[in-house]
Amino acid sequence: MAASWACRGFRAYVGLVAFGILNCFAFSADNKKCDQLLNGQFICLEPVINDSTQEPVDCYNNTAQVDCIPAPNITCIDSQGILRQFDGETMAFQKSIICRNTSGYRYTVAVALSLFLGWLGADRFYLGYPALGLLKFCTIGFCGIGSLIDFVLIVTQVVGPSDGSSYIIDYYGARLTRLVITNETYRVPHTEL
Fold first, then answer.
1. How far apart are CA 58 and CA 61, in angstroms?
2. How far is it between the farthest Cα atoms of the chain?
3. C-alpha to C-alpha distances, 86 to 41, 79, 100, 151, nearest whole angstrom
4. Which end of the chain is more exposed for a tag (fewer CB within 10 A), N or C?
């Protein structure tokens, strides 16, 4: 009989400890920083776009900052360290987004030069490759084959400016992103239907 009371007392003690641990987790989950919120608990505003570069204003080291607003009735610690409940209209933190480094080379100009004057090497001169431009000029675009290959390479954005920067493309335009496959890339096996 005494053993059963001891067992019940132990169960009650374990229950209280578990309840206390759960309360600690619940308390700390409510008081997390706003920049640690899950997707769907906040929305980030669209960045301000620079008209000349077609990239977000203040784009440095391929990143820019955008203001983010938590959803209504979300309580978190804002960027100033204050715990508050948000109304869905107040900015709480900034998030980094990816942007491209541009240096004045426009994609549309490069494609037009490659299409119409590629046989003279104008596209390569424009992109900063004078040796290849001169070679294309002297061989009349490698008898047209080199001009066609260069046109495909420029349209698919494989060939870019010689300084390593990106083309100036409309911010909401057709940008290509190169996907790199390495040994760490997870590949999903095909299953038979």
1. 10
2. 104
3. 11, 13, 33, 52
4. C
